[in-house]
Amino acid sequence: MKKGFFSILAFVLAFTLLGCKTSKKTQITSATEKTEKKLFSKQDLEENYFFVNANKEKLLGNTEDAIRLFKKSLQVDPTNAAAAYELGKIALSVNDFQSAEVFGKKAYNLNASNQWYALLYVEALQRNKKFSEAISIYQKLIENFPNRQEYYYDYADCYLRMNKPLEAIKVYNNLEKKQGINEELSIQKEKVYIRMGKLDKAVEEIKNLIAAIPQEAKYYAVLAELYAANNMDTEAVETYQKALKIDSENATINLSFSEYYRHQRDYPKAFIYLGKAFESESLDIDTKVKILLSYYVISEKSEELKSYSLALCDKLIKLYPNDAKAYSIAGDFYYREKKLEKAKEYFSKALEFDKSKFVIWNQLLILQSEMQQFQEMEKTAQEALELFPNEPSLYLLAGIAYLQEKKPKEAVTVLNQGKNLVIDNKALLGQFYANLGDAYYRTKQMDLSDQSYEEALKINPNDTYVLNNYAYYLSLRNVNLDRAEEMSRKSNEIERDNASYNDTYGWILYAQGKYEEAQKWLEKAIENGASGNAVILEHLGDVFYKLNNNSKALDYWIKAKNAGKGSDFLERKITEKKLIE
Predict the structure, then answer these.
(1) Residue among 208, 268, 192, 259 at smallest CA distance from 229
(2) Alpha-carbon distance 146 to 95, whole Å?
(3) What distance separates the 2 farthest-apart alpha carbons in the chain?
(4) pLDDT digit string (tens) for 80-96?
(5) Cα separation of 406 and 149, whole Å?
(6) Count of CB atoms within 10 A of residue 524's CB?
């Protein structure tokens, strides 16, 4: 045998023998407790060999070998309670509750005074839902260890699982006689009485707790919550007020009182107490943010709650002027209320204090896009990409900014970079292809533009943005007009009153020589809000010219000029009073 093995064997043997005297989990019956045997008999040596090696395998994590050796040890000496205990522990750890009970019972019967054997056995009994048997074990544990209060709670829990709450109360009362009235016991008894439907007894328990410790404000709050939960509103308000007389700045009590008024829909009072809770330093900012988030949902349909919530956001910023969380949650609220400038200010401020939150960068970029502040958006996207180079959505937003800033080459580059980072997100990938279609068109790479749009439509055949743009660009190139007409018609079927889509369809019909139909669709576009759109007005003028109505054509060309920028030929059309293409 190698020297190394002897070393570990000696260590484990020493550890095990020491455990016979001091360990809670590996106690072995001493020689004086057994029937006297011959010292170092063959049986002793075999038993120790198997037991020591079993512990060694357990320490090394070789569970199967440990089980085999513990069982051999038990076979050699059926009175080895420690081996039975170890087998029971292993069985319990792998949820083999039946075996845990068998070995736990054996260890317990061999040495009932050992609390660790008793605890193993009683846990196995509870796992197997044998609560009446578990109760008898707890009774003996409490006899042997009367000061271990956790045994009383577990003992009472068995009665509760057997639906015998009055017996559980008796156990709690016995413990209370030993240690006096205290919070944990009183709250537990209150819960049991509530479960029994005995509100008066539950109230009595908390009142007894208050009488025992009258200076503790939170117990009044517990009683107030109990009253409130049972529609005893007068008693609830009076008790909350008593609590606040003792500790007016207690954040927990103010929160509880605020919640009471919120359920009563008395929002002015709810926010008075919520404001007091917010002012307390004992309530950390994370908790305050969570509270605000809860109001984010419930305030959506209430103008009154929206107003109060925004006031709380402003209060949070005053309390934490250097914390990004305060500005971030305020930005969310102001963004929802379409107060975009304020939302932008707060998101930007949040990033001054913490640049590590991707979600804030993303939200700021979306906000800048909605506000059509594309120059700022481009700068924000570049800064964000330096911090988060693996976030594909940032590349998409950067690409959109470049497109709007008339930098299609840069858009092509960044969109392709981001596209290659997308994993298992078809919707996002579709957005990349859609914008690549636009970018390639503007760089006059028509084949790549068409391919990108087709890829986008494979992902989402009903993407009206792609259907419209792809169709419009085909019509401008005067190619594949049947495909363009099909896509444009589909976009209008999905979204019937979109002036831009109406215009595209009308322009395709124009390109196909269907002038009367084109007129109807372009007039429909104007009805749907495009009366000030220079491009659409110019298109309608072109249609009237093709219909030999030159005076109307001129009228619409002039309207187009007054509305804004039309085509490069618009001035000549007006001057020469004829269609120029």
Answers:
(1) 259
(2) 30
(3) 128
(4) 999 999 999 999 999 99
(5) 75
(6) 19
Those residues with Cβ within 8 angstroms of residue 168's Cβ, 6 or more apart along the chain or in another chain: 156, 157, 159, 160, 192
CA–CA distance, 422 with 407 (Å, rounded to integer): 23
Cα 202 to chain centroid distance, Å, stands at 36
The structural domains of the chain, ordered by start, are: 359-446 (1.25.40.10), 461-530 (1.25.40.10), 534-581 (no CATH)
Whether the Cβ atoms of residue 437 and residue 469 lie closer than 8 Å to each other: yes
Element (H, E) at 327: helix 324-336
State how far the Cα of 422 lies from the Cα of 179, in Å rounded to an integer: 63
**pTM confidence score:** 0.72
Distance of CA 32 to the CA centre of its chain: 60
- Nearest Cα to 67, choosing from 87, 93, 46? 87
Length of the chain: 581
CA distances, 37 to each of 17, 20, 44, 242 (Å): 18, 18, 9, 72
The pLDDT score that the predictor gives to residue 44 is 64
Q: What contacts 419, CB < 8 A, 6 or more positions away? A: 392, 395, 429, 432, 433, 436
**Distance in angstroms (rounded) separating the CA atoms of residues 20 and 36:** 17
Token readout for 254 is 């103010």
Q: What's the alpha-carbon Rg for the chain, to the nearest Å? A: 39
Cα separation of 436 and 408, whole Å? 9
What is the per-residue pLDDT across 206-249, written as a single tens digit (0 to 9) for each? Answer: 999 999 999 999 999 999 999 999 999 999 999 999 999 999 99
CA atoms within 13 Å, Cβ hemisphere of 445: 14
> Does 430 score more than 90 pLDDT?
yes
* Position 56 confidence tier, pLDDT thresholds 50, 70, 90: confident
Residues 408, 13: Cα–Cα separation, whole Å: 77
Would you say 363 and 347 are in contact if contact means Cβ atoms under 8 Å apart? yes
According to DSSP, residue 36 is labeled P
